Fold this protein.
Amino acid sequence: MYIRKNQRNLTSAEKKRFVNAVLELKRRGEYEDFVGLHTDFYNSDGEGGPRAGHMAPSFLPWHRRMLLEFEGALQRVDPNVTVPYWDWTTDNTPAAALWAEDFLGGDGRARDQQVLTGPFAYGGGHWTIKGGVTEGKFLTRNLGRPSAPISLPSKAELASAMDETVYDAAPWDSTSASGFRNRLEGWTSDREQPWLNHNRVHRWVGGHMLGASSPNDPVFWLHHAFVDLLWDRWQQKHPKATYLPRTRLPADDPQYGRAISLEEPMPPWDVRPSQLLDHKNLYRYDA
């Protein structure tokens, strides 16, 4: 049993250990495996095959397993390291501590969005992008998107997801009009508010966080640790609610073979959502 801490509560030593472990995975060539994993399983509504990582009920258990795999890799480097979380409803400006030079580094510069500060700046020689959607070798960010400003999700916006009483709903994709999973993941047809919660955070950070290869920015892990924490809070708030769909969809359902039910295996691990509904035998949060 170990604890995942709010990044604002990390000591200087804990920040350094986390950063050093991430850099060591990069040095070993293991970090790109996680970028590739996320890219491979980022399938949209319009693509064929199982939709495990996004726009589907398995969004939350799939990312929980991915976080555990990453955390395990970090702990093989340093057994005392865990993935911290970023509460973006509170630490919601570019001045927040996680963007400091001793942790994740700051915003990208205006002309090309290149991150110039912190341990993941290309100029430091330890963080070269190898699996991005562009040919650029440097990490990019565009915090708050100044040219067309966007804010991080508010507590009220998040509450709208937390108040949902069912886990997910048909048609089990990005167009589901109700259900906690899609409200938290943040797909919406509202043109005035095209991204909510999880999706909005990716948009706010910008740069490499915009695409399927978003783990290229280490803030990805802190973001998804908070999403994982929110799933835990939602379960506590709605103790009678359960993962849906509970059983495999019928063959005449458009999402048959695409949306993963409670006891179907999630690729690439052959692990079922039912095995990832509770984490308390492995870790807990300091909140």
About this structure: The first helix runs from residue 12 to 28. The chain has one domain: 2-285. The chain is about 30% helix and 0% strand. The beta strands are 2-4, 283-285.
